[in-house]
Predict the 3D structure of the following.
Amino acid sequence: MKHLIDPTDLSVQEIAEIIALAEDIIANREQYSEVCRGKKLATLFYEPSTRTRLSFTSAMMELGGNVIGFADARSSSVSKGETVQDTVRVINCFADIIAMRHKVEGAPLAATEVSRTPIINAGDGSHSHPTQTMTDLLTIKRELGTLNNLTIGFVGDLKYGRTVHSLIKAMTRYQNTKFVLISPPELALPDYIKRDVCDRYGVEYREANDIESVIGDIDILYMTRVQQERFTDLAEYERVKDCFILDANKMQGAKQRMAVLHPLPRVNEIAIDVDSDPRAAYFRQVENGKFVRMALILKLLEWQNDPERKFAQADGRAIAGCKCPNPVCISNLEPVRPRFEESQFEPGVVRCVYCESKAE
Ligand code: CP
């Protein structure tokens, strides 16, 4: 079974196939209007969403398929204590493919352990958001014509920002990628991404204290919201929430050929005077999300029937004495099998496979 839990579950070749299919769908939409006739997508959203859930829904409808699911876990039997894995066993009886968003990290991966249909991670806590990454890659390709030789500036919440984590993982596999990381120290990129992702692939990254001094070097400026819902200390959120704001004045220092992306929703981090700048690509990015999800649904349904296709999926095993310290990891909240693996780039470090936290 092919699932999409982490952007690296897809090879660079598979990503290229999905992007090419999305571009063909954009050019020939009517040809795809019946290709999922009789198929059902289940959208299991345990956490709020506008773009991801509705673009999945819209994508399946444009393919001629149907959609079932819930947008609020309180309206499902989850509110009675049903586990993620039991819910998925049930939904397997009704749907051909499942898109799941969950505030608990690793929940979609736990779902793959029991599922008879493909699982798509539509965002798990602060961990990963691979379909946003597919959206971002299609947008970068359409805006700049290439995924190689790009300097990407990430701004805002790099600690809890799952879209940032996933896009960094994906972009390390393209040629001559460079990252500029702009965040308050409290919201810096987690160490595991720097070591096990950037260092592993030899990708150059540097940290900066402001947008103005680096914007002229940047091809993709990836703005993110400081996410109030991830903070336990509201005072800390108030202190950092407006640290970095992009406005039309700062855009004057940017290259003529560059693009501003944002997974949205935005709060204050992009002033509305940027919206009319042709380099502001964030609303085009939303529409690309629908097309890339159409392509992803088609490919996952096709690949699950291909006996020749080999799938690289997260592994891991119980290791005596290892425990995940992350209170919002599925391994601490539901009865799933422990899965740990040794870090290849940090000697002696063992990580939880569900959430990638360093094990205790
Ligand atoms: N980009 C994104 O994930 O948006 P939603 O939270 O609205 O789905």
Q: What stands out?
A: Residues 282-303 form the longest helix (22 residues). The first strand starts at residue 40 and ends at 45. Residues 49-52, 123, 132, 263-265 surround phosphoric acid mono(formamide)ester (CB under 6 Å).
